[in-house]
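A protein record pairs a chain with a discrete description of its three-dimensional fold. The shape at a given residue is found from the number at the same position. Here is what such a record looks like in full:
>
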Amino acid sequence: MRVRVRFCKLGKLRWTSHRDVARLWERALRRAGLTVAYSQGFSPRPRLSFGLALPTGAESLAEYLDVELAAGGPADPGGLPDRLTPLLPAGVAATAARTLEDGSPSLQAEVTSCSWEIGVAGLAPGELADRAAAAWAAPTLVVRRERKGSWSSEDVRPAVLALDAAAGPLRCELATVGRTLRPSELLAALGVAPAAASVCRTSQWIERDGARWEPVILPAGATAAPHAAERAS
């Protein structure tokens, strides 16, 4: 039985490494009495797989974990968040879960874009909105990238699927397939030092045949961060 769990990662836990996040999930699953299936071979590992990597220091309201449970798993995975969240450290909370059909693609293969909310300090009122509007209207958006020790300039404008800062923080949607773009690269293209920004992933999207959806949808009335620690400033 494969289950996909949606969770948040906020506050001080945003600095936690991927490996440490995997360990805290392994511990929470074990304490919840859930039997996780293990891989075969010389060094068996629990069958856990995570979605797209989150930049170090970034928060998220929409992280995902796929876990394969041994026979006898819960009949209704919708109850897993309430079962798991008290066993996780403050800043990480399970918010929704659903069963995956056999043969379902991995998150890395399915997710086509991510939505982000970025707060920027040190700019005059309206300056960020003006820069975002100019970048959105521009036919090209060039960033410098290093590959194998050499630098090149690339037009990443096609990877910017949405961009707006009129309501305060910068809200954007960036492609994760084809020509991709990281939040730090977008900030650099806007003339903003990444160190001056607080970054939060708010959604991951799967788009296919003109429709799009999230890997796990929050239940009606659920909050994206039910017991999270303080948001980063």
